[in-house]
Design brief:
This protein has about 230 residues and is an alpha/beta fold. It folds into 2 domains: about 70 residues, Hypothetical PUA domain-like, domain 1 (Ribosomal Protein L25, Chain P, Beta Barrel), CATH 2.40.240.20; about 150 residues, 3-Layer(aba) Sandwich (Alpha/beta knot), CATH 3.40.1280. It is built from 7 helices and 12 strands.
Amino acid sequence: MPHNRFYIDKALNEHSTYFIEDEELHHMTRVMRQKKNDEIELVDGKGSLAKAHIASIEKKKAEVKVASITKEKENTRKFSIAIANLKPSSLELAVEKLTELGAFEIFIFPAIYSEKEHVSNHTKNRLERHLISALKQSGRLFMPKLTYTELTEVLKRKCFFCDLQKNATKLTTLLEKEEDITIIIGPESGWHEKEKKLLLEKATICLLSPNTLRAETAAITSGAIASQMLY
């Protein structure tokens, strides 16, 4: 990935002017030491990569002008990961690595035995920053959607859920013929009986590893397997 790539929270268009502010401005001017007239790249997380140059830099914003844009088509084969809410540091790690691995969407939902019931606004803001950082670092042009929801909503999609049940089919086997799948990762304390019953009714059980994994490890591992199988 080029070191001079920056994120714009707007759809990019050719021959348009944009302003870089806040953390991206700090990264541009204080970390990367970019200056007026420097050539840079812009991404919007929607499939566009723009070649641009810095027209001016002020204290609170930098004006950049787009010269050309390359657009990428989104992969029709895709995977999403649904994670029972974890402590913030574990969520940040999982979100960062799943972005690098190419996840289409990341769901975070409260499970009965979750470490935390709700995701604070502070944590949500930090997760957004991790998304942006991983988007730029990985060279991706599409940023995953980050959705806070309930398990019942996740189960309206085609889902696999990971479990240590001995007769469960390996995730690698189940993914061979899939185009669009969501993999559900439960809390480290396990599923409540009511949740397990619902999962068995609505989703397909799969085996990720014969060992007991931490939730963030399970999320990243399932993402790595899905990325290899689907992309």
